[in-house]
Amino acid sequence: MRELRVRARSRKVDTGFRKERATSNPGLNPGLEQVPRLVFRGACSSVIKIAALAAIGFATGCASLAGAPAKPETTASLPETPVFLQTDVLGLEAGALDTLLGPAVLTRREGSGEFRRYAFARCELIVILYPDDSGKAAVRRLDAAAKNSGEDKPGLDFCLAGGLARQAAG
Q: Which pTM value belongs to this model?
């Protein structure tokens, strides 16, 4: 922090900024009058500039998000006979899941848990396996993600009902 200095004669406090007059260059702008402005010196200048930029950025960011409606999940009509239901997948152990859905497009192990992503006809199915109290890893969580960035997130039932991408293609 900058230390405040007191002038002995006038007892004025130097707060780190002063008023100056902007001088115009008559050759460049002959009609420009002298305009008073504040000139900030030292650390005070940087702090004020950063605070002003942050406030402007925050205000514009909030304004742009305020009017944006949330994207709803895709809930198009489900087929009469869905290929998969949540109950078909939840609780399955890793081997049974491989038998039902085949190999995952992506598998990532983290600690004792496992994250798998499967390519479905209408979405990407996210499957999370982690062990229960007995130590056996099984499907504990399911989620659906859009196939392409920027698309609406599909509903889980809608995703499962369409089946695997290779089943839809063949």
A: 0.54
The pLDDT tens digits along the chain (170 residues) read 445 554 445 455 555 555 544 454 555 555 555 545 555 455 555 555 666 556 565 555 554 444 445 555 445 565 568 899 999 999 999 999 999 999 999 999 999 999 999 999 999 999 999 998 899 999 999 999 999 999 999 999 999 999 998 876 66
> CA dihedral defined by 117, 163, 123, 126, rounded to 10 degrees?
-30
Relative to beta strand 106-110, strand 113-119 is: antiparallel
Every domain of the chain and the residues it spans: 5-66, 86-169
